[in-house]
Amino acid sequence: MSVTSTPTVTAAEQIAAIEAHAAHNYHPLEVVIERGEGVWVTDVDGERYLDCLAAYSAVNLGHGHPELLRVAHEQLDRLTLTSRAFHHDKMAAFVTELAALTRKDMVVPMNTGAEAVETAIKVARKHAHDVRGIAVPEIIVAAGNFHGRTTTIVSFSDDPVARDGFGPFTPGFVTVPFGDAEAIAAAITENTAAVMIEPIQGEAGVNVPPEGYLTRVREITADSGVLFIADEVQSGFARTGDTFAVDHEGVRPDLIVMGKALGGGIVPVSAVAGDVDVLGVLTPGTHGSTFGGNPLAAAVATAVVRLMATGEFQERSRTLGERLHAGLAALLGDGVTAIRGRGLWAGIDIDPALGTARDVAMKLKDRGILAKDTHVHTLRLAPPLVITAEQVDWLVEQLTLALADLRG
Ligand SMILES: Cc1ncc(COP(=O)(O)O)c(C=O)c1O
């Protein structure tokens, strides 16, 4: 057997092997994907599906974007890893262009979203200690947050499934309701280092805060000298119709946390962007990652940043997102109790009388669409931004029929 051959063949056999030998920390739909191209994925039985999850927005630019593949292939043949002990020739463009895209002085390259969130937390705490002289810094977070899975991050999750049994927890976090800027103002004390929020809460069900919230959070944090950290891991890179979700209100946080789509769906790439007065607290040895900013990641991510700079994906997400939301609106009251979102991103609450969101996802799968439930009754749609208008219409049509299927 060569190292690349798969020991099992049928989808059922592969799923059984995965069940037996991969820990059960996910509950995937019963599909084994073999190929991806643009908005489409194909399973081992040759069935084709419209990918409406896009790996939780990591595949915003579509599967196998030709330019990203070209850059990745080229880089694979040249140089893939040096560690940060040495400079490599893909780093300068990556950090310069990502800093320019975020309109910040500099970036910290990491790999996963959770690592970037951890980085932002460490930077906020270090800044509080070193610059503001706070002995026990606190970070204000929002109820319903999802920032990843590390021990510190689940310490301030209010999702019992994510949290229970993983204590003891990291102290230093204060939770306020999402979307209520005055609650943040009331929670700020002399020990507050930062406010960290998702500008739109993805995992919570694509919760969009009231208009003006981000602006007010910026004002409140600026007035009290507290850092504003925006976790754009899921909302960033054109998902909402702007490069970043904070752009919708023209707000500039102190730290922008990025991940997922920055790696073009090819490699894990994350980063935190900030100005030198904040990120300058990091000095040699205080933080790092063997793989962070590696040549392959840097080459692919630079290509992603260049594609973002064209504005094409933001425009697609804006106009096709309007089309998607206009189509979805017709479902309200008809098996659907609420729809939220911005751009090509939607959280759709399924009427419990009809079934769960997973029931809908399974019906959609039978109709050639892959989507994912979150929190039992919410179906999340986040197709690759290369989706066409016809495909958006087809998606809405199939969702309408899937809901009808459940009605029986
Ligand atoms: C807003 C947000 N932050 C952080 C993360 C964690 O990213 P990762 O799974 O790459 O660690 C996620 C993942 O869904 C996320 O949605």
Question: Which percent band covers the strand fraction?
Answer: 15-25%
* Computed Rg: 21 Å
What is the count of structural domains?
A: 2
Give the helix level as a range of percent.
25-40%
The H-and-E topology, N to C, reads as: HEEEHHHEHEHHEHEHEEEHHHEEHEEEH
> What spatial order of strands do you see in the largest sheet?
4-10-9-8-7-5-6
CA-to-CA gap between the ends? Answer: 47 Å
CATH class type of the largest domain: Alpha Beta
Structural class: alpha/beta
Mean pLDDT: 97
CATH superfamily of the largest domain: Type I PLP-dependent aspartate aminotransferase-like (Major domain)
Q: What is the CATH architecture annotation of the largest domain?
A: 3-Layer(aba) Sandwich
Bound molecules: pyridoxal-5'-phosphate
**Uncertain regions spanning at least 5 consecutive residues:** none
The CATH topology label of the largest domain is Aspartate Aminotransferase, domain 2
Short key terms for the protein model shown above:
408 residues; alpha/beta; Aspartate Aminotransferase, domain 1; Aspartate Aminotransferase, domain 2; 2 domains; 7-stranded mixed β-sheet; 4-stranded mixed β-sheet; 14 helices; globular; binds pyridoxal-5'-phosphate; Aminotrans_3
Describe the structure in your own words.
- This protein has 408 residues and is an alpha/beta fold.
- It has two domains: 30-59 and 312-407, Aspartate Aminotransferase, domain 1 (Alpha-Beta Complex); 66-309, Aspartate Aminotransferase, domain 2, CATH 3.40.640.
- Helix content is 37%, strand content 16%.
- The chain contains 14 helices and 15 strands.
- The protein has helices at 11-21, 54-57, 66-78, 91-102, 113-130, 151-155, 160-163, 181-187, 213-224, 276-279, 295-309, 312-329, 357-366, 389-407, and strands spanning 33-37, 40-43, 48-51, 106-110, 138-142, 173-176, 192-197, 227-231, 255-258, 270-274, 336-341, 346-350, 369-370, 372-374, 378-381.
- α3 (66-78) packs antiparallel against α11.
- The model has no long low-confidence stretch (mean pLDDT 97).
- It binds pyridoxal-5'-phosphate.
- Pyridoxal-5'-phosphate (PLP) binds at residues 56, 112-114, 117, 146-148, 198, 202-203, 231, 233-234, 259.
